Amino acid sequence: MAKNAFYAQSGGVTAVINSSACGVIETARKHGDKIGKVYAGRNGIIGALTEDLIDTSLESAEDIAALRYTPSGAFGSCRFKLKSLEKNKREYERLIEVFKAHDIGYFFYNGGGDSADTCYKVSQLSEQMGYPIQAIHVPKTVDNDLPVTDNCPGFGSVAKYIAISTREASFDVRSMSKTSTKIFVLEVMGRHAGWIAAAGALAADKDNDIPVVVLFPEIKFDREKFMAKVKANVEKYDYCTIVVSEGAQYEDGRFLAEQGTRDDFGHAQLGGAAPVVAGMIREDLDLKFHWGVADYMQRAARHIASKTDVDQAYAMGQAAVEMALDGKNSIMPAIIRTSNDPYTWEVGSGELKDIANVEKMMPEDYISKCGFSITDACREYLVPLIQGEDYPPYENGMPKYVTLKNEGIPQKLEKFEI
Amino acid sequence: MAKNAFYAQSGGVTAVINSSACGVIETARKHGDKIGKVYAGRNGIIGALTEDLIDTSLESAEDIAALRYTPSGAFGSCRFKLKSLEKNKREYERLIEVFKAHDIGYFFYNGGGDSADTCYKVSQLSEQMGYPIQAIHVPKTVDNDLPVTDNCPGFGSVAKYIAISTREASFDVRSMSKTSTKIFVLEVMGRHAGWIAAAGALAADKDNDIPVVVLFPEIKFDREKFMAKVKANVEKYDYCTIVVSEGAQYEDGRFLAEQGTRDDFGHAQLGGAAPVVAGMIREDLDLKFHWGVADYMQRAARHIASKTDVDQAYAMGQAAVEMALDGKNSIMPAIIRTSNDPYTWEVGSGELKDIANVEKMMPEDYISKCGFSITDACREYLVPLIQGEDYPPYENGMPKYVTLKNEGIPQKLEKFEI
Asked: Is the pTM of this model over 0.90?
């Protein structure tokens, strides 16, 4: 008898997380003998806890296919991490109640490190609480910081957007530098790892001699050294582009720009490193500057997503379902790079116990000796991930993204307060 | 005997100003009997004053064609406004010396309102100083504030970028709102006129019910009214997107975010309205927010330029040369809209005396009564301008923009200090 599946999106959404959703749902629909309905959690795991389940079988094949080119989280996401079984047994018991009530035997959770932890905890329910469930994590994070997988779906598209935006803005400031702006500062995401900031360095290549100075979270900010680098670039090129990670920090670990607020996981909410850097440029070098903050635009920019990324996101969703059908539990499909040039990859997997709460940092040899750019090894790693364009369809000059009906199923249980 | 032409780019550059350059140069090349070489001013009019002229005839047809899809100003731009003939006769005499030395009979200046003023002054040299020159202004400005022309090349592409980015970021915040971000603030350009901010409202349409609140420079900022609007949206939608113009200002005319610096024309240098608005949201509503600043990215985003805009920019360059060949002086080609639906337009023209230093504001009936959105009339005006995509070619995942050789011609005159 076919069991139903639960699918949910977690954490910060991306330009391609819906492509994974598309992969999950389309693949599940092909296996109606083993998987009944796919219920999506409205707003991630919260949808499971509150029995707020979306019946994706009510969505047309066309609308599900449109998820492949629609950014954001179509079912709503959440920032919510399950506590340990010891600390909050009530939540796990509730999950089991909901799964039982709706005959759910498959649990697909699409997210980053915190979500892998949640998924791992759910995967233990069989053993620890006797409820038979197969929990598979579908990797997603623009931060590219999950272990085991060569890269994370979501990252390649942000990298492509940042590389292109940095090149375009650099062309702009180069045009203006004679009498006006000489410095452009672009702030990008990446709280602890400099993967996204590194992508800014791709603006320059053998045909594009562009001075890009990157401020990585991995390298403690040294104002004097930084100003010397910028000054040297301005002397040589008459302009300089700076890509600063939101996670760039001083020697003592303070972020260049804390806003003083924290998210539900206790992470400091960042934003504002660019104006801080720009202000320093004014103080120390007295050069005219402009600054931009890419914020949500960078991770939502489906209009210029990387085709490689879109394909891989879909493949991870598809593989998750196939692994479930294969009887697997507590696992995550992963992208395994088999060659750099030409770039080839295949689907592998990792155990959730090895993935949950592990943060993959950039290898040290990816940052150049000066601390402000990337090495050839880093470039070889990054370039394949931004390959190919995968334009969405347009109507009236605007991308035709889908908004699903998202109809909930009737609730059978009592209310649950989170 | 064929006279040479001078072409230069002025003011803030755009995603399509090089498409106009392409139109000028390709059209001139077709009329070798009347136009000799096209010399480009390195960094705008400064190139003419300092006799720093680029020989565009040394660029291949392929590279000139690539200008059509390359953002920024290929020859460098400048912020430099000629004083009046009475105030600085020396500069005009110098221009004539340079024109004479290089047999220049045509002057094409590609810019906005300040540049139209410079072009107008040059166009008077025939009459006032006896040097025969035909000066034609090629319209360009993301601010869309030139009179006579229905719209300005450069604006349509920014509008498209902002409309798309606002839609994408809105999808993102909608996904996050349950447990995290409920407010996204996007800061856009437009110092005095709200054209670009208005484009943010295009994120919503009949198929996309997105709550977008626009802060126009035309409407004095009323914090209480604004907060009430945002609060109502959050109550209804659980999230709200805010598009704030860099020119948004208080009742007393102060900008929400002055950086305290001014450009060479005395205009206050802006930037930072988004964090100011975000800070107010925190104070008054205590909602979690994110904010972005599109800055140069918006005007350099050739990767998602409007095809209509690219075509019109080219057509303006082409028309400028044709008008010159037709014996015209002190004129600007213009875009004349002949129908809204289907959108049709043709090339018209205006006299520089009616254009220089005239700023076209948004019609009052383009802003909705509440002051936070656009009317149907505004939508009808804007939508045609963002029609069509015109993707640049890609290589290795990155747009293949051209950087010209930009070889200078030998100087014949003595140095000139500006």
From this structure: yes
